[in-house]
Each structure stands twice: as structure tokens, then as C-alpha cells.
Specification:
FUC_metazoa-typ, TIM Barrel, 13 helices, alpha/beta, globular, 463 residues, hydrolase, 5-stranded antiparallel sheet, Immunoglobulin-like, 30% helix, glycosidase, 7-stranded parallel sheet, 15 strands
Length: 463
């Protein structure tokens, strides 16, 4: 095929995609391209059972690793941050551009097998890797991102594909991808924006082909959309794409999506609700939701200058996990690798520590469902989860006098209590059919404690 024919074929790609999407609106399709139909799709069961996942933000922004993953926008956008401007003036030549950072995004120490092993050790059931952030750089060799992808510049390898293969070969973790709908400085997007989104040049030539490409190539179990807020979902053609995803794609039966598909859609439409970054309502939510949050309190990407105080500790993380799962959510906990491809020790330590806690207490997290009460009304720092066979009280703070008051459970004559990781029944007192149980906590030495941070009371035959 000569170059003219190749160019003609490439020019037909947007048209072919429109045809793909149009097929989804046929009378025989299960899901139609409208929110009433899209929102009726049941959530794949694996996601609710999983409860805990790992988010990974990795890209060209990992090179400056200063301020946050929004470095480029905060440097060259409409409202430049003075600290970033000064950082660049002090450390880089005057004509340095953001694109110049890409050559230093080499990932020379990236070992996908090692990453997969660390992810497995965390106890997480799914992982969501950044395939493309708002900077537009794709972590796979996209046909639609010439010279701005991980094969043409920087790592010179398929980062998404390498990690996907390692995770699938070495673990039972579900592999997912984050993808930004918009790009800060893509001229096609900026032109559509200048046209008040009455044109879709960027969508036709970049967005839709990319989305089809990552779904068909990597078959992600999670498609985590972002960067939607500047334009309505009619510009992104979100319902048309989701109808194709749910009806005809290779992941149609297992894929989980979120709610970031257009301005005003968040917490209203789509799959799992995120309702904003670090959403942690502390109350039961009827619709399945996700708390996407960062171990680094400030940034999603790696920061070289982050002090220890900016990292959440294990008490913080387990409290977030317990409260999120109790209120019908999943916790998606983010780490930011370095530009050379390392998961730095503080992130690795948090991941492995979470895994150690889950080895003992995962029974109270995985495959649970919300109970009739989420937290205790008398004793602070207690969150409840439930299964058909038992109810669990996740106790964040050990009682000073070893007497734990649980005001919500209603015991019976058949009630029995245990601590996960401790084989002996627990002593307790209470009146059958009346709320309230007082638990005598076991006597432990530091080296015999089942776990270091929070402890789970398993209650059988309580109401």
C-alpha cells in the first residue's frame, strides 16, 4: 500500500469510529447511547467484592517531580504558579520547554515484575495505571500520539503493555487504566474549546481513536476517565462510547467505569461514583462509590521534595479503608513512581504494611457489605462491616482499660466474639435482645499482637 493510500485510510478512521458507535444505537443493542440506558448496567460483581485498589500516576511530570502532576499547566497555563516559575528560572535554561523533560523520562530502573510483586504484597485486588494524563503523553506507543509517547521518546518501551503483562502473569489482580479525556495544550483541543465545543476535531483525531486503541489492545478491567469538566458529555460523545464499550468491546462484560464523562456528570452518571478526588463522606452511600486518594497528601505524582509529614501513615490509611468500605465504597490508594521507574521505599513500605494488615484482617474487608450501622454511636473509631455469617467491628484505637464498648450490636444467647488473628473466644457481657456489648480485650505483649494498627472483632449471631 503506497503512502497516499495509507493517508487516505488514516483519514477514514474518525468516520469508521462514528460507524462503530452508531452500531451501538441499533434497536438490538442491549445498551443505548443515553444515560438512562447506560446507567442501568449492573456493576460487575468483581469490583464490589474487591474493596481495595492501587492507583499509579506516572508520566513526564515525574521528571521535574516538583509541586504536582499539574506541573505543566501550573507553569505555562493561564494562572502560572510563582514557585514553579521560579523553580524553572533557577534550574533550567531560558528556552527550556516542557517537552524537553520527556527525554529524561527514561524509566531505566522500571522492572514490571518487581512492581507486580509489590502490588501483590499490598493485598490490593485491582490496579489503575495512568495511560495518559492531561499532559497528553501516552505511556504506550499510540498511533495517535506521534513523538509524544513512551516508545518514541524517553523510555522507548511500552510501559502500559509491560506492566499489564507482569500483573496478569504474576498476580490475580485486575488491571485497569486511567485516561484523560482532555489535554491542556493540544492545539486541536484548544481549537475546539475556542469554538465553544461546537467542533470535535480533537475527539475525532485523538480521543476516540485512543480510547478504542487502549480498550482493544490492553483490555482493561477498569477504564478510569478524567479531565472531563470543561465540556459536556455530548462533546466527548461519552454515551456513544460507553454504549460501544458495554455492548461490543472485548471487555463488555467485565469492565468497570467511573463517573467522569462530561461536565455535570460526576456523582450522577456512569459506573462507579467518585464525586471528586478524596471523596470520603463518612455516611452510607446507596450508589457504589470510590475514594480515590493519595498517600502523598499534596500530589498524585512523585515529589522529590516531599517531607515525611506530607505522607499519610498507616493509622490514617487503615481508617480511610475501614470507613470507606463500611459506607459502601472502594479505596483506590495512589502512589507516584519516579521518572527512572522506581517505587520509592516510603510508598513500598505503605503498600507492604497494608498487605500485612489485610493478611490478618482481610476477612472484614473483602466481599463484605454495609451493615445496618456504619460506625459506633458511643465509642469513636469503630467501623462496621458485614457478611451473612458474621458482623465485624474494626477498632482503630485500643481501649485504655481493655474494655471495649460496642453500643450498636444486639447480642443473643448464641453470640460469640473473636479477634481476627487470635484463636481464642473473647469474653464479653451484654443483655440478650438489647443493644450493647462490652468486650474484654485480650492481654498481649507487643510481639504477640495480631497486627500493629487496628484490630477486628468478629461477632457471630448478633443483630
Amino acid at each position: 500500500m503506497d503512502r497516499r493510500k495509507i493517508s487516505s485510510f488514516i483519514g477514514l478512521i474518525p468516520v469508521l469510529l462514528v460507524v462503530f458507535f452508531a452500531v451501538c444505537s441499533s434497536a438490538n443493542a442491549q445498551y443505548q447511547p443515553n444515560w438512562n440506558s447506560i446507567d442501568s448496567r449492573p456493576l460487575p460483581a468483581w469490583y464490589d467484592q474487591s474493596k481495595f485498589g492501587i492507583f499509579i500516576h506516572w508520566g513526564v511530570f515525574s521528571v521535574p517531580s516538583f509541586s504536582s502532576e499539574w506541573f505543566w499547566e501550573d507553569w505555562k497555563g493561564s494562572n502560572p504558579h510563582p514557585d514553579i516559575v521560579k523553580f524553572m528560572e533557577d534550574n533550567y535554561r531560558p528556552d527550556f520547554t516542557y517537552a524537553d523533560f520527556a527525554a529524561s523520562f527514561r524509566a531505566e530502573f522500571f522492572d514490571p515484575n518487581q512492581w507486580a510483586d509489590i502490588l501483590k504484597a499490598s493485598g490490593a485486588k485491582y490496579v489503575v495505571l495512568t495511560s495518559k494524563h492531561h499532559e497528553g503523553f501516552t505511556n504506550w506507543p499510540s498511533k495517535y500520539s506521534w513523538n509524544w509517547n513512551s516508545m518514541d521518546v524517553g523510555p522507548k518501551r511500552n510501559l502500559v503493555g509491560d506492566l499489564a503483562a507482569a500483573v496478569r502473569n504474576r498476580t490475580d489482580i485486575h488491571f485497569g487504566l486511567y485516561h484523560s479525556l482532555y489535554e491542556w495544550f493540544n492545539p486541536l483541543y484548544l481549537q475546539d474549546k475556542a469554538n465553544n465545543f461546537t467542533t470535535q476535531e480533537y475527539c475525532e483525531k485523538v480521543l476516540w481513536p485512543e480510547l478504542m486503541e487502549i480498550v482493544n489492545t490492553f483490555e482493561p478491567d477498569v477504564l478510569w476517565s478524567d479531565g472531563d469538566w470543561e465540556a459536556p458529555d455530548t462533546y466527548w460523545n461519552s454515551t456513544e462510547f460507553l454504549a460501544w464499550l458495554y455492548n461490543s468491546s472485548p471487555v463488555k462484560d467485565k469492565v468497570v467505569t467511573n463517573d467522569r464523562w462530561g461536565s455535570g456528570d460526576m456523582c450522577k452518571h456512569g459506573g462507579v461514583y467518585t464525586c471528586g478526588d478524596r471523596f470520603s463522606p463518612g455516611t452510607l452511600q446507596k450508589h457504589k462509590w470510590e475514594n480515590c486518594m493519595t498517600i502523598d497528601k499534596v500530589s498524585w505524582g512523585f515529589r522529590r521534595n516531599a517531607p515525611l509529614a506530607d505522607y499519610l501513615d498507616m493509622d490514617d490509611l487503615i481508617e480511610l479503608l475501614a470507613s470507606t468500605v463500611s459506607c459502601n465504597g472502594n479505596l483506590l490508594m495512589n502512589i507516584g513512581p519516579t521518572a527512572d521507574g522506581r517505587i520509592v521505599p516510603i510508598f513500598e513500605e505503605r503498600l507492604r504494611s497494608m498487605g500485612d494488615w489485610l493478611k490478618v484482617n482481610g476477612e472484614a474487608i473483602f466481599e463484605t457489605r454495609p451493615w445496618r450501622a456504619q460506625n459506633d454511636t458511643v465509642t469513636e473509631g469503630i467501623w462496621y462491616t458485614n457478611k451473612t455469617t458474621a458482623t465485624y467491628a474494626i477498632v482503630l484505637d485500643w481501649p485504655a482499660d481493655n474494655q471495649l464498648v460496642l453500643s450498636v450490636p444486639i447480642p443473643s444467647s448464641q453470640t460469640s466474639l473473636f479477634m481476627l488473628g487470635y484463636n481464642q473466644p473473647l469474653k464479653w457481657s451484654g443483655i440478650a435482645s438489647k443493644p450493647g456489648i462490652t468486650v474484654t480485650m485480650p492481654q498481649f505483649t507487643p510481639d504477640t499482637l495480631p497486627c500493629e494498627w487496628a484490630w477486628v472483632i468478629k461477632m457471630k449471631m448478633v443483630q
